DNA sequence: ATCTCCCGCCATATG
DNA sequence: CATATGGCGGGAGAT
């Protein structure tokens, strides 16, 4: 049988999309399937029309339906009388859309449970699938390959795959994220954007060479397929091809999302990176096009899995297709602890349950020798990178999963806080010295700062430095969400603008739902400024400075720019020794950090012991929980990279959850108070503040003595600016919403934060800290300012929320 | 015109 | 060798 007889039947059945969710069907009796004939059913026609009318609706609908199997199950019952429909002539061809890979994927996915019970494995027989779904085999491969890249299925033998469902997803994503980080994708992204940016200005010059060269060193981008040992067992047969493009490409694509700060990746950037950054400027247009095609294929599948969602990034260049990650947040895998170099078979296929626990991931290296990659010249590089890759062998935590999250967090907090603190101090000192005179200098010196590449255009500011920002409003909804960006980007954009106005960068605007007016940039800026102005309290002396248009602003911008440029240069130079790239940085503004914490156990306090600041430690112990968004702990490594703000030009809005206020009291702390009062920035105090902020004890900006900008900012009322996006989201999300306090706003910068502060069982009534807190949190007129302490049921551990501020920028993203 | 991306040829891998 | 896989890119539908 060469080609399953599909075409005869093809046309009509395509329309039937979801079938009622079924249980882990191992081998469904094939006959049942024929759903068809629908086109002639009134209902089906209607559906079809609707769908046709609005793709959005359609997809949404599909999802919904898929999710709740409850929806009409009946319709499936159709019988096999496809033969007689005499009107094939008119046979409305399924319209391209009906045949889309995404739709097909939905159908495919509908056949299997997301979480198949470990006990019973479900197998996928390609012949059956192709027949039942009425598609060409080729298409199924596309789907399966992507699923395989996520370890949702694995190839057993010819025609046979095993369905794993989403069980492995967490581990896979974690592994991918890790690899992505090791690959320095963030930097690559920035590099690409930068290059792109420069291109605009003139014919490319040697600049590119530089780039390329610097880039070239980072060859290791070519890694092979990342596996989860437990899953891949049977792979022997297929191993050789594991590295094949679609699979690997899919993994890389996912990695890009996982490492990017706003988890948005434009196709263009992805394509460039995936093509192989080593290809310096091969103006290979066709290659690029092909890559894009593939990415669309992958994206369609990922979209069906609801891991990503299409959006459009608007930048000055125009609208560019992009996708944003809507999948689960990936915990940073702090524990590299056990690197097991599981050479080949990590675990036998045997029990499924086991593998899940002891997931380890390893990279397979196809090269191994004899392989002749006839087609993929690029693969050759693999060989080069093997060495590097070897290191990539990873293992997943053997430890109980549950604990891991909180543990991560705790460790992370404890471990990093101190270092941060120190770093901060140093930084600030340095800063103090040099900054005053010439800010630009500052960054340079810092060893611990990491070089921030500018991301001129492009949507995503991905700087690893920023702690994995969580998107507050759940992205899921597609509503706009706040994206925490690095200020660095901002300046980047501005870099070339003579005026140095702080504009909301093109690259950075994210509007939730398709908000179209793109020109927004300028517009927004202006508006924001104006609005702000109107609303802002008189108080801010600094306000003037902050203003985008003001001189001070300009200067600071300039500084940034300059410094950045410098650092970039350095970066390039140093690139070779890539190591430092991660930990050194220069001019960054601190962006905010969103540190949602899950409540954790106190177990780790030991860690803090070494820290001198007992006070801090004590505070730290508290567990934080973020009811809202979930946890987004960042790996210590990431934290280190975080930079402290040299100049805080940023922010403006603080979003608090009602409960957060309650937390404020907790802060009461000598440090805090002192800080608040202190006008003169004291390095150490500021450092402390910084640390506290990170920890979530203090809302960012509060301490600000160190931070000039925030310092005096009066609290103004809710931010309208954010409202559009956040508003809806919040509502939806429910809890999060907030009272957003606006400190000062530039439209584009906002501090959003949600950090639950722990309230020891007895919520302390706001007392001393009040002053600070009050002030800080007060919502003018805001009704629901009430802090609701979540005194929580299980007691001790719970916490109310506090807030950390994160400067965030909006990217303009429109979704379809 | 650009964005999407389906279709299916045909090289390769596999058994 | 017959098949199973799956690069790849033309070119057409969707916008």
UniProtKB/TrEMBL annotation:
Question: Ranges for the E2F/DP family winged-helix DNA-binding domain?
Answer: 96-165, 241-327
Q: Where is this region: Disordered?
A: 1-44, 525-585, 717-736, 759-816
Q: Could you tell me what this protein is called?
A: Transcription factor E2F8
One MF annotation (Gene Ontology) recorded for this entry: DNA-binding transcription factor activity, RNA polymerase II-specific
Q: Which SUPFAM superfamilies did the record assign?
A: Winged helix' DNA-binding domain
Gene encoding this chain?
Answer: E2f8
Q: Which UniProt keywords apply?
A: Activator, Cell cycle, DNA-binding, Nucleus, Repressor, Transcription, Transcription regulation
* GO cellular component assignments: RNA polymerase II transcription regulator complex
